[in-house]
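A.,

Following up on our hallway conversation. Structure tokens first:
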């Protein structure tokens, strides 16, 4: 029994010793590291001044708010804008005799029509083949079938009666017959000065590409050159920049332009232009309409609407149809359709200098029964001329 008790005591002692060793070793492993030594703290470097090294800030004298000069607010700062210069007003060339001055521009038509006819008529024997060539020359120049037949018949009769045919006699003969064909007695005055009221109202119509807006601007120059004051109505609201283009033409001669929003109602712009022209006491209101395709029935109806709306204020004195001379017989198709919508009172033929089809003057007059009143003979600002039959024929057949 004693032995057992002794063994138990020894076991307890051994276990206690082992437990102490284990706990001691664990404590040694879990001891935290010694705290680091405190770092040397230095003051942060001062912000350097321009050109200085970083250093401790220096004490500098400071001003109080009472010592600072502040604006008193009595004189506000005014920013002067550069003065905007008004566009220089141009003085257009006088229109009297302008077609005579521009006669050299008809050189292509002269070679094809006038000189061609003179050459054929100067042949020693005028047989049927020669007369057929004369007819072909006239038809090629777009004189038209009926006018060509009339002219050839008269030439035949007069040549037969004349007998001898000197160059001067032939030229005089051809000149007289062509002036008769073109129409000496037609009234070609652009009606812009009604007797009972002001302003005169001119509606400018035509298809796209004929130079209608440019023609309106040039017509304004013609009227200003004749001493009239002009208001322009930019009723072509569908073509981009048409109003800007017309306004630029107007500014060059001092004409005021009435315009509306792009895509707006053309009739409203036309109405406002006439109203403005009345208030300003202008002599003439020129209304540039949209360049409608003659195949668009709805757009043609709208052109009729523009005319009806304008006439609520005053009658329209002139409706000028602008035709491109280079289109030839196709221009006659356009003329027919426009004549059905509005009462055409005059024709403006543009680009007559760039075509050998000078006979279109005769054909379009016969088609509509209205005179050619103006012709365009170039790209210059003053290249629109009042039409004069004698000067036109003289330019075609030469001296």
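Then the amino acids I'd put at each of the 399 positions:
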């Amino acid at each position: 029994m004693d032995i057992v008790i002794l063994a138990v005591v020894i076991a307890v002692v051994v276990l206690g010793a082992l437990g102490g060793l284990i706990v001691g070793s664990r404590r040694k492993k879990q001891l935290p590291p010694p705290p680091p030594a405190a770092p040397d703290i230095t003051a942060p470097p001062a912000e350097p001044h321009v050109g200085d090294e970083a250093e401790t800030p220096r004490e500098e004298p400071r001003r109080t708010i009472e010592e600072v000069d502040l604006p008193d607010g009595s004189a506000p700062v005014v920013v002067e804008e550069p003065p905007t210069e008004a566009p220089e007003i141009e003085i257009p060339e006088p229109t009297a005799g302008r077609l005579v001055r521009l006669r050299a521009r008809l050189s292509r038509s002269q070679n094809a029509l006038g000189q061609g006819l003179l050459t054929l008529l100067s042949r020693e024997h005028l047989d049927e083949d020669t007369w057929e060539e004369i007819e072909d020359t006239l038809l090629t120049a777009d004189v038209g079938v009926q006018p060509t037949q009339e002219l050839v018949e008269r030439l035949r009769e007069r040549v037969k009666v004349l007998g001898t045919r000197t160059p001067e006699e032939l030229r005089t003969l051809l000149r007289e017959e062509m002036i008769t064909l073109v129409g000496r007695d037609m009234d070609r005055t652009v009606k812009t000065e009604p007797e009972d009221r002001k302003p005169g109202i001119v509606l400018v119509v035509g298809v796209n590409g004929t130079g209608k807006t440019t023609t309106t601007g040039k017509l304004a120059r013609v009227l200003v050159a004749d001493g009239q004051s002009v208001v322009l109505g930019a009723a072509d609201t569908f073509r981009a920049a048409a109003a800007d283009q017309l306004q630029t033409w107007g500014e060059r001669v001092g004409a005021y332009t009435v315009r509306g929003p792009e895509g707006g109602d053309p009739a409203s712009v036309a109405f406002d232009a006439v109203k403005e022209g009345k208030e300003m006491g202008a002599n003439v209101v020129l209304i540039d309409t949209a360049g409608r395709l003659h195949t668009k029935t709805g757009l043609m109806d709208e052109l009729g609407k523009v005319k009806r709306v304008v006439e609520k204020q005053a009658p329209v004195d002139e409706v000028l149809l602008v035709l491109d001379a280079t289109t030839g017989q196709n221009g006659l198709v356009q003329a027919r359709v426009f004549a059905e919508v509005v009462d055409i009172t005059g024709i403006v033929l543009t680009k007559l200098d760039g075509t050998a089809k000078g006979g279109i003057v005769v054909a379009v007059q016969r088609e509509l029964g209205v005179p050619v009143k103006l012709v365009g003979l170039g790209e210059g600002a003053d290249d629109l001329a009042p039409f004069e039959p004698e000067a036109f024929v003289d330019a075609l057949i030469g001296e």
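The longest strand covers residues 318-324. Curious whether your intuition agrees with the design.

B.
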